[in-house]
Amino acid sequence: MKKTGYRQLYTCLRATAVFAIILCLFKNSMAENQKIKLVWQRPVVPSQYSEAYMIMHGNKLYCNNSQLEIKTGKIKHTFRTENMVGSGIKIIGFGSGTIIFAAMNYFDEEEEIPGCEFFWHAFDLKTNRLLWTTTSAITGRFFNARTKTRPDAMLALCGDTALLVKGAKQEQLEALEVKTGKEIWLKHDIIVHDMFAENDRVYITTDDNKAIALSLLDGHLIWQVKLTGDRIEKISLGNKMIYIPCSRSENDESLLTALDKETGKQVWKKTFPKTSLFPAAVSDDMLYIAEQPVADFKPGNFLALNTADGQEKWKYEITADYNEHDFQPVITEDKVIIWSGDPEYMKKNGSSGDISMLCLNRYDGKLIWKYKPPEKEKYIYSRPIVYGKYIFFNDTEDIYCINAGVL
Known about the structure:
Layout: H1 2-33, E1 37-43, E2 54-57, E3 60-63, E4 66-68, E5 75-78, E6 88-95, E7 98-106, E8 115-124, E9 130-139, E10 155-158, E11 161-166, E12 172-177, E13 183-187, E14 192-198, E15 201-206, E16 210-215, E17 221-226, E18 231-232, E19 236-237, E20 241-248, E21 253-260, E22 266-272, E23 275-277, E24 281-283, E25 286-293, E26 300-306, E27 312-318, E28 330-331, E29 335-340, H2 343-349, E30 356-361, E31 367-371, E32 385-387, E33 390-394, E34 398-403
Antiparallel strand pairs: 1-34, 2-3, 3-4, 4-5, 6-7, 7-8, 8-9, 10-11, 11-12, 12-13, 14-15, 15-16, 16-17, 18-20, 19-20, 20-21, 21-22, 23-25, 24-25, 25-26, 26-27, 28-29, 29-30, 30-31, 32-33, 33-34
């Protein structure tokens, strides 16, 4: 009787273990193949521009100089002025009931003196009336002779203040009243790489590898520090710190530096040998960032770090070599969304393969679902925009809206 009882117990435990393994495999399969519904797909607007600049404001979706219907993708309204033409139209942001665009007109390929011209346009969001416009001409074939990058229209908004980068070499920072376009203050000899305005300050990284904090009220210098590295990614702000990824080309090393927002003092620095870093996203006590090996065609990792000391909490294998345009994570309440290539394909073939959108649990890094865009051969340009159950993104030709369920 005892032997029979042991056999029955063994058989039961064995069946339970097999069932648990099958259930685990089934869950993983469901995560990778969960059906994400394509709600709509439409060409980039205006159709003559291959790159879409999308932004969400409240419950409204904007692309280039048009407002789109969220549920259908149809154009609801188009903002127009005489000078709102050129090589591209970029939505810069919103402030005090105002939407601001930049129209970029590059003429470096055709003109005797290379350069470009920017036109900024501010519209009232309630009446769609043009409030003000300003312009800036930039001379020289490249904004940055070292990185060979074209000039880009840069603006930061905070409350009633708009900050524009202007000047022939983009060496001026001008603060304007959002509603009127009137100048508040003007700062010279500061070539801005990236900037972010918050509360009463504007945080800036410069082309000569400095991090600077200025007063939003009058532009006076609060603190300034020299960064290690020769290439700087986008600034990420936390509650108490500012996080700046940098790289050093001399040894293919990347650094992630955390500075105190009040004083500019270094709190911690993390080194990533033979690795490129991408723009980070911060929420609560977690910082999310992608890393990719510089050579050897190996997969990289998506990392969750403790904001207080930079210690790793978890990592998820990805490839990020395909897109240096805006590989910045999107954080929802308990999830984080990123783009990634196929790590297994890279191990075998040395390239990313098909690009997918991944949704991970932001606390433990486990995969929740995976979505492959309809047109795999197209280049994905945008950081996903999340609105409720909808996610918006674009490639080189089209804008997409998918239904991902509860986010």
